[in-house]
Amino acid sequence: MMAGIILACSIVLLLQFFVSYCRSLIAVSSKQVLSPEVKDVTGIQRTASGDDFKRVMQLLQLCPERPEDKNSVQAIGAYFNLLSFLRSTLARIVPSMRAWAESERGHCAYFAAVALERRISFSRDMLAQQMDA
Amino acid sequence: MPGLVINILDLLTALLQASIVVVSIAKGYSRRYLTINLYLAASTIVLFSRYYILSQHGLLSAEYIYFYYYSDALLTIGLYFTLMGLYATVFEEMKAAQYLRVFTILLLIGTAAFTCAVVQQSGPRMITRYVVEMSQNLYFVGVVLTYVLWGAILKLRETRTRVIQLVLSLGVYFSAFAGNYALRNLYPQMHVVWEFVPPVLGCLLPLSWARAFWSVSEEARLAPSRLMAVPR
User: Fold this and answer.
1) Is residue B16 part of a domain?
2) Interface touch B207/A6, C-beta < 8 Å
């Protein structure tokens, strides 16, 4: 009985902490402006949509990984999947949730684009170091 | 084979934790986040000790299981102090450090008394479900305390991004462990699965803390109201 209550509370609070943590990662990256070349590559001009996410993630996987952002990219990937699940289930019943989930999915895509920007500059720095050596 | 996987995960976690402490000392913010650094240092020592005992006695030995659960309970109490350090950081402008110290001591005494009661009650059956129940309760108290701190962050409009991310990752860690121990308690027959979950979850806290220390500057700020799923 006690274990069941603790399990239920833990799952609810885990979700709440996880969503807030992911939103804090997104909030930090949303302040960064994308460079024109990343905008061209990703097709994101001002605001990103949820449909951009998979494409940007594919581009992200083509770049060498930065150890600092691997963990956060995976967390946002899990958050995006959670939002997609919500959009295709609960959001069908509650229309306002659909708009919220779509907006959040767009923020996830923007986060991925910012991560792509960082990886591109990381690759350039590595290349420059190799050239110097 | 299971012992090898757990060994590798524990070693990677220990190395990451040690590197966070070293970088904190080198960059000069080890005093500001003293409780976090002390916890990470203690956890690194425990992980190396576990590695030694695991390699000497094996995964299913009584030595390893005893050491694992006792050290886990002690590290959880260590995490309470880390949490109290974060409380002190959030409440530092309210000059509430003295009250927090008293609360921390009372919490430690309460936790110790509770743990003693559980151990005395279980007696020779320490390695049975009592120990799992004890860890489950310890982690759940941690979840509740973290949730109260998160509420205080929202109420006091704490804007330091690093502090917010440290608290939220601690909340994820505590609730994931409390849920895992509750599942273990509910389904003890699936112990093979539950053996693997703690080392995997154990990597997450140092990974997210490493990110908070290395990628987020001390000056970074964000509005905590933006982090709520439902705007306040």
Assistant:
1) yes
2) no
